[in-house]
TrEMBL record:
InterPro entries linked to this entry: MFS_trans_sf (IPR036259)
Keywords: Membrane, Transmembrane, Transmembrane helix
Protein name: MFS transporter
Highest taxon of source: Bacteria
Source organism: Duganella qianjiadongensis
Residue intervals passing through the bilayer: 56-76, 97-117, 123-140
Xref: SUPFAM superfamilies: MFS general substrate transporter
Amino acid sequence: MHPLANDCNLVKAFSIPLVIPLRSASLTDRYGSRCIINTAIVLAALDFALMPWSSASLATALLAVVVWGLCGWGLLVPQQHRLISLSPASSPLLLGLNSAAVYVGVSVSGIIGVVAMTWLDRYALGLVGAVFIAAALLVAEWARLRISFRGEVIPAS
């Protein structure tokens, strides 16, 4: 077997959940965007926090990568729904800013990973990621509270 066969399988496993945005749309309609976003963020944080242990075997690593993909791809529709519901008239601008923020986050993550590896073991990168994911949940909830205190209407979703 080729030495990269396992890495290729991990990449394939991450792309399997690409169909999840189709399902997350119906889940968003049923449970609301906030519920889906918060659930995905909590699952992703747990998944990343457990990566030092789940990377011990190929089977658990595949499972961890699939959960990562489910959470990551599953956030697209509820996040867009949330932004559009906040200001329908500004939705093109909000979606563009959201896309830009995603690109910046992906770009900065590589830098953060390199810096973290200079101080920590490479197996601790999942824990570093979990901290940033948990911070994202706190920022999302802070933003929701701030909007509600300003008297603006926050959709129940």
